[in-house]
Structures are given as C-alpha cells and as structure tokens.
Design goal:
This protein is mainly beta. It has a single domain, classed as Purple acid phosphatase-like, N-terminal (Immunoglobulin-like). It is about 10% helix and about 40% strand. The strands form four sheets. Strands 4, 5, 7, 8 and 9 form a five-stranded antiparallel sheet that branches. Strands 2-3-6 form a three-stranded antiparallel sheet, with no helix packed on it. A two-stranded antiparallel sheet has the order 1-12.
C-alpha cells in the first residue's frame, strides 16, 4: 500500500502590536489549502476593497501578482503553478494599504522520504521570548510548524519577522 501524506498548514503567530496593523486591516493574512503547487491566502478588511497579492521568490522582488475581480471584506486569493517545497514571499494590498512581507513554503511532493515538523506552544504574555523561539524555529526551515496555545494581549500575524 502506498504512503499518503496529508498536509494542513497551521500559521504560527508573531506578536504584533495593534499600532503595527494597517488601519483597515481586520484579520491578518492566513494560509489555507497548501499543496506542492499552490496555496490560498486569506485576510479580512473593515470594508469592501479589491485585494491583491504580490509574491515572488525573493523578498526584495515580488514580481508576480494576483488580484481579485470584485471588492470584498473577506479576501481569498488562490496562487497556483508554484514550485514544490519552495519558499515564497508575499504581501497583501488593498485600497492603498499593504501588509508587511510574509513568507510561506509550498508542500513537499507526496513521495517525499522525510519532512521536518516543529511543534511548540505556550507563547502567551512574553513576546520577547516568543520572538526568540520563533526565530530559532524559522532557522530550522521546517516543512510544517504547529503552534499550540494562543498569545494573550497581542495582535496576531503570520509567522515571520516583523522587524
């Protein structure tokens, strides 16, 4: 019987103060339906706007984009034709506002011999320690990160540096 891998991506939060958020951002971007060749990026704004994702293989060169056809509060953009097991950088844009640049990694192939999974938790009320741990986790370049628990008293954003 052949082996099957089912990957679900859990977004690791980075502590962000409310003042770091664009004024019309209601829910930070989060990732859905990660595959070896695609991903869905979602976020929510306070009003209906046309959303866009700029993305690329280099943080300094987001040379690809995908735009919604109509104004929405709940934005959902599917990126396809991506390279397997590859890190991409992206940001969300709407109504003249934009998020900082985040990153994601597409899933490995279904027949991958090994995948690297890191799990950690209890990041509440100590953003300095959590930021240190998040940097150590990111340095390992895992295929999947699972975060248990919830941060308290801080805004959440996807895994990545906010400096």
């Amino acid at each position: 019987m052949g082996k099957k891998i089912f990957l679900t991506l859990f977004v690791i939060p980075v502590m962000l103060k409310a003042s770091d958020a664009p004024a019309t951002l209601h829910i930070y971007p989060y990732l859905q339906n990660v595959s070896s060749s695609g991903i869905v990026i979602m976020w929510e704004t306070t009003g209906p706007f046309i959303g866009e994702i700029q993305y690329g293989l280099d943080r300094l060169q987001l040379n690809m984009s995908m735009k919604e056809s109509s104004a929405k509060k709940l934005h959902e953009i599917k990126l396809t034709g991506l390279l397997t097991g590859t890190t991409y950088f992206y940001r969300c844009l709407w109504n003249g506002e934009k998020t900082q640049i985040w990153q994601f990694k597409t899933a490995p192939t279904r027949d991958a011999e090994k995948i690297k999974i890191i799990t950690y938790g209890d990041s509440r009320s100590n953003p300095e320690v959590h930021s240190q741990i998040a940097r150590m986790v990111a340095a390992e370049n895992p295929d999947l990160i699972l975060h248990q628990g919830k941060p308290e008293r801080w805004w959440m954003g996807p895994f990545g540096s906010h400096n």
